[in-house]
Amino acid sequence: MINKNVQRFRIINTTEGYSYLALLLIAMPLKYFFGTPEAVKIVGMLHGVLFVSLLILMVPAYLEAKWKFQYNILFFIASLIPFGTFYTSKKIKAYE
Fold first, then answer.
1. pTM of structure
2. Rg for the chain, CA atoms, rounded
3. Quick one: residue 88, left, alpha or beta (phi over 0 = left, psi -120 to 50 = alpha)?
């Protein structure tokens, strides 16, 4: 049985990870080395929307999968660390 909320959470988790890397590795160098602050505005806004979506989708996924509450803390902390969401994606996939 596929848990739809968990699947959505995993997808947004991975997408948010890519947006974080794009912000750090593409947009910020464009701003500070090439004087293009628009890149950070655009990618930063996208990343912010995805981050808030990640937090919102975490609740129904947690309720549906019935994983330990400590995993919510892990998923949140991992979303703050570059490449962290890719590590947690495997844990989330186990609950699908």
1. 0.90
2. 15
3. alpha
Q: How confident is the model at residue 1 (pLDDT cuts 50, 70, 90)?
A: low
By CB atoms closer than 10 A (0-12, 13-18, 19+), residue 47 is buried
pLDDT in tens, 25-59: 999 999 999 999 999 999 999 999 999 999 999 99
3-state secondary structure 2-49: CCHHHHHHHHHHHHHHHHHHHHHHHHHHHHHHHCCCHHHHHHHHHHHH
Residue among 63, 57, 41, 48 at smallest CA distance from 16: 48
Distances (CA, A) of 29 to 20, 25, 35, 38, 86: 13, 6, 9, 12, 23
Buried b (16+ CB within 10 A) or exposed e, 8-26: ebbebbbbbbebbebbeee
